[in-house]
Amino acid sequence: MTAYDELMAFERENQALARVAGRLSWDQETVMPRGAAGQRAEEAGAMEAMLHARRTDPRVGAWLEAAKPENELAVAQLRHIRRSYTRAVKVPADLAAALARLTSRSQGIWADARASEDVAAFLPTLEEVVSLKKQEAQALAEGGDVYDALIDDFEQDMTAAELAEMFDEMRPRLVYLRAAALAQPASPELTGKFDETIQVALSREVAQVFGYDLSRGRIDKAVHPFSSGSGEDVRITMRTAEDDPFNCIYSTIHEVGHACYEQGIDPAYHLTPVGQGVSMGVHESQSRIYENQLGRSRAFCGYLYGRMRDAFGDFGVADEDMFYCIVNRVHRGYIRTEADEVQYNLHVMLRFHLERAMMSGDLQVRDLEAAWNDRFEADFGYAVDRPSNGVLQDVHWSVGLFGYFPTYSLGNVYAGCLFEALQAAVPELEVQLAQGNLKNATDWLRRHVQCHGGLYTPRDVIAKACGSAPSAAPLLRYLDEKFSALAAA
């Protein structure tokens, strides 16, 4: 065997073990007994310690030195392994294991605090998480910007400065659109009770309409919807609320976008470094284009309206036009995952600002709730009413995902670029969406984005699919056109 062959065989085992570790997290969020949290933390820590030891094995460095790539795929594989190895060797093994144990335990503490609206019950644990993440970031940054080091874990070659510039470009237009929308007479709202069993059944149907392969996946319930896994085992979760079926349906479509990305990767790449989504920004582009540009389009809303009438009977919405307005109404609210397309990125910008300040030391964890509430009121014009609608609403910080939030907005930017290209490539798109036919749309995304996995860099994936470098301009054009028309309706 060549050095490259030996390295890839070793890496295949790493990938398989990482999938097992991921399944532990999925189990914890869905079906694990509550009393097992302590033991699960030890299990997660042990798995991470073993994986860290393998990722930093000196043989990896030697193989990388000796490996001679013979094609584009081998070059990409080595790029990912080298990046992972370089990052892993900078982080002490005991720190990696401690983070895994703490974040496993922290999830349950966050969930309990959120349920009881008790910020004080969570902050001491969050202080520990922030402290360990700072140590990790300092080790990775080697004197550079610690927040940039964390962003790079999710979006390679992206910096906080570049993200801040992008947000500064987007913010004025988003604020204007929000103000214009909220100045209009209030859109109608969905009212009544919607059987949760029917919601789940309809969401499963919609998931398959969007191409989710349930022979290689499953759908379960969790506090916070998420997607996990890759290759032949890709799982998503949903949540339900009796008075809000859109929460269930659209969170499912969102997670299906993530899942279809993983299911759409070339099977030849499975259990290799390129056999997964290349970055969280590109990943989010798939979930957002599925959920918004496709799922909240006028055409697809007409189809979904009919399916909801079939499932729930007369639910108080007169016609497809009213349904479309309800699905896309711009409204006051607190929850990022329930925000309309205009305001969603403002939620992300808030978190970007706060976590960047925490990592720099400009904001202490003990002051986080007050800082959140002040920033929210300044940005949205009204006060947070309770912690579960504020600083406790997201799971991300409890599991150490600092640097992750900005990729949500980056995904929206990428989705805007992809949607313009998709519309040009599929002229009959609206007609097909109105029929509930997503095949041509999702096939295009599979061919131009999903099948590549990690073969190309994130920016190159978008540029190859769209014919130009990614930019916020297509997203802003899409939002302008859609919400100006809705305001005039």
UniProtKB/TrEMBL annotation:
Which InterPro entries does the record associate with it? Answer: Peptidase_M32_Taq
Which reaction is catalysed here? Answer: Release of a C-terminal amino acid with broad specificity, except for -Pro
- Where do the coiled-coil regions begin and end? none
Keyword Hydrolase on entry: yes
User: In the Enzyme Commission scheme, what number(s) does this protein have?
Assistant: 3.4.17.19
Entry's Gene Ontology molecular function annotations: carboxypeptidase activity
Does the record's keyword annotation contain Nuclease? no
Name the chain's protein: Metal-dependent carboxypeptidase
Q: What does this protein do?
A: Broad specificity carboxypetidase that releases amino acids sequentially from the C-terminus, including neutral, aromatic, polar and basic residues.
Query: Which enzyme class, named as a word?
Result: hydrolase
Q: Which SUPFAM superfamilies match?
A: Metalloproteases ('zincins'), catalytic domain
Q: Which family does it belong to?
A: Belongs to the peptidase M32 family.
Native organism is Roseovarius phycicola
Q: Which domain of life is it from?
A: Bacteria
Q: Extract the Pfam families matched here.
A: Peptidase_M32
The protein's UniProt keywords, in alphabetical order, are: Carboxypeptidase, Hydrolase, Metal-binding, Metalloprotease, Protease
